[in-house]
Amino acid sequence: MKNVVFILLRRLHLPLIVLILVYAVSILGFVVIPGQDDQGNPWRMDFFHAFYFVSFMGSTIGFGEIPYPFTGAQRMWASVTIYATVIAWLYGIGSLLSIIQDPAFRQLITENTFRRAVRRMRDPFYLVGGYGDTGSQLVRSLVDAGFRVVVVDIDPERINLLDLEDLGVFVPGLCADAANPEVLEMAGLKLPNCIGVVALTNHDHVNLMVAITTKLHDPRLPVIARAETSSAEANIASFGTEYIINPFEVFAEQLTLALHAPGALLLQEWLAAAPHERLEEPLFPPHGKWILCGYGRFGQAIHRRFQAVDESLVVVEVKPEKMRVPPGSIAGRGTEAHTLLEAGVEEAVGIIAGTNDDADNLSIILTARELNPDLFTVVRQNQRLNDAVFRAIHADLVMRRGDIIAHRIFSLIIAPLLEEFLEEAKRQGNAWANQLVARLSGLLGEEAPAIWEVELDRERAPAVVAGIAEHGQLALEILLRDPRDREASLSCIPLYLWRGGRRELLPDGKMPLHPHDRILFCGQPQALSQMEWILQNRRVLHYIVTGEELPGGWVWRKLNRREDSPAL
Amino acid sequence: MNLEKVIFAFFILLALTLNFGFFVGDIADPVHHNVYELFAALVVSLIATVLKFGDRTHLGAVLLATSLVADLQLIAAAVVWGWAEHVSATGLTPHVMAAIVSLSGGAVLANVTSVVLLVSETMMVRR
User: Residue A567: which pLDDT band, with cuts at 50, 70 and 90?
Assistant: First the structure.
């Protein structure tokens, strides 16, 4: 850490020397110039009085002539030194102020403050690079879920936004380039309580650098990176980044899921929804001819997916040669009626406005609707600022990059098993997903479910680990009973069980538990707090297993055999 | 040749020579020790300290420390002198003079260290 005081002193060399010299000459002058005492005898000021006089004269020009009234020569010297000391002080203070206002120096001070703030955090935290649409949403969700967060962004505006945002806990933010490994270190990458890194900047290259730096420092530290091109995706994946999220691919996948397996999509949306969000109604996009406007990264992802499921798609692109559009495509922006007519909008069932310009996308939707009011409309929103207009247009589906990535990353952080579960769920087909959705909606009502993961180890579930040793075997259903009444069950279901190489989708209640099992649950948020009792309190577990309360006097036992008592 | 280095070495050496000039002589005899010389030694020592600010090398840190020690010793000597003449009733007794001169002797030692470091650094650079 650079010491601010030393840098300040080094840059104040000259003013300090000037000040010392001016004082030295002034003092010397008063000592040398002959004076008179009150009786008119010749008298010379000594160093002590000269220092005293010059000190108060330099700062205040006050207190009068001491110890005896000055002679003419002394007064002449005093008037010279008054100006000299005042100028020396002005020069010194002026230089000090200009150094303090110097942008480089201020940057140094902010960096030091930031570094200290990060060091002072004792709780586990996530390092988030990039505080744009996605970053801000993710940070809010993480903070709401009780995690600490450190933010790095290159745009000072966004760091200002972070400062103004009322997040409840302090989130240190630094305006710096996340691609610089030193910046990441400053942001706490090497601290033991950094539990994960999320790279969300707008540039794939920066995200790549963040992932590389993290993985070089500690290969076990989980990294979640955003990538918008498939080459960057492959590159970031090549050195073991845990999760790479390409928003275009994710959305294209969701759209094709909506076409072919709406149940699976609904399941995915429900499970990845933010807590307390209202559940979405299922969407049923029509089958038939689709029109896609804009063949950029987004359009290409959609096109690939549509081809894979044999859905017919006509591409409209303004620069067909440059983007290497598929045969049969129409040249044009899609905002004009004749291009859309040429693409066959009248017999199409749906339109996807996927250019990287919000105004164009809105115009495409409005024009297409005029030509064919029954179209299913999908629109890509690029800027968060345009929320209001995109709400007003009432498109059937709005693709917001920020929302998609923020949701996905949040669920990855909260429950790493969720991703695996969803992959598995997609393979099970639509009917299976529909069944599960029906079961979930019976359990949950209108609100989004809470998702949580439990690992049966000594720290997370001490009572259960001890219970397995004591009773020989515990079934999974033990965890699903209500601690207040063992006949009732908690409103949650186990989605997935992970045991070494073995994975179990929707594990059965009869399944015996093993230590170190990881189980993914989904249910009402209150169910989690009830389940904590079973996981951590041995008396509660005993009641649930046997139906009998442990005999009284446990206070005494707790005092006597502390390590044996149930952990509360 | 670098003007900055000339000034730097000049002040460090001058601090030592002035300091030494004040120090030599009978330790308790005020006649041998000039108050102007002490003043000059203190001022030059302060300037040398400021010149050493901000060098973040290990050697720079040691140089700064020696200067701070010299300043401290000389300021203590000056304060003792002022106290004896203007505050205490005893005046400048041989006993007080001995204290002042021995304090400045400590500063001489610190300044010698400073010069030795400076010379050895110069020898190592050999340019």
Answer: very low
In chain A, the residue whose alpha carbon lies closest to the alpha carbon of B87 is A48
Are the CB atoms for A455 and A516 separated by under 8 Å?
A: yes
Say how far apart CA A338 and CA A521 lie, in whole Å.
Answer: 52
Condensed to tens digits (0 to 9), the pLDDT of residues A457-487 reads 888 888 888 888 888 888 888 888 888 888 8
Instruction: Report the pLDDT averaged over residues B78-93.
Output: 88
Interface residue B35 vs chain A (CB under 8 A): yes
Chain B residues within an 8 Å CB radius of A21? 43, 47
Contact between residue A25 and residue A95 where contact means Cβ atoms under 8 Å apart? no
Mean residue pLDDT of chain A comes to 84
The side-by-side arrangement of strands in the sheet containing A376-381 is A330-331, A312-317, A289-293, A350-353, A376-381, A397-400
Q: Is the pLDDT of residue A277 over 70?
A: no
Please report, for chain B, the start and end positions of each structural domain, with discontinuous segments joined by +.
3-125
Give CA–CA dist A568/A225, Å, rounded: 38
pLDDT of residue A554: 60
Enter the pTM of the model: 0.70
User: Taking CA atoms, what residue in A is nearest to B80?
Assistant: A48
Report the C-alpha gap between A415 and A394 in whole angstroms. Answer: 33
Higher pLDDT, A411 or A159: A159
- Does A99 contact chain B (CB < 8 Å)? no
> Given the DSSP bridges, would you call strands A485-489 and A481-482 parallel, antiparallel or unpaired?
antiparallel
- Residue in the block written with tokens 């010149």: B51
Answer whether the bond into residue A67 is a cis peptide, omega within 30°.
yes
ipTM, 2 decimals? 0.85
Q: Counting runs of H as helices and runs of E as strands, what totals does chain A give?
A: 24, 20
Distance CA A348, CA A368 (A): 10
Domains of chain A plus CATH, in order, are 4-101 (1.10.287), 122-245 (3.40.50.720), 286-395 (3.40.50.720), 449-564 (3.30.70.1450)
Q: Please name the helix (run of DSSP H) or strand (run of DSSP E) that holds residue A112, with its range, or none.
A: helix A103-120
What pLDDT is attached to residue B125? 75
**Residues on chain B touching A31 (C-beta within 8 angstroms):** 36, 39
The answer to whether A67 faces chain B, any CB pair under 8 Å, is no
Calpha distance A48→B81 (Å, rounded): 9
pLDDT at A15 over 80: yes
Asked whether the beta carbons of residue B53 and residue A48 sit closer than 8 angstroms, the reply is no
Predicted confidence (pLDDT) at residue A566 exceeds the cutoff of 60: no
Tell me how close the Cα of B47 comes to any Cα of chain A, in angstroms. Answer: 6
- Each residue's pLDDT tens digit, B102-116: 999 999 999 999 999
A437: helix, strand or coil:
helix
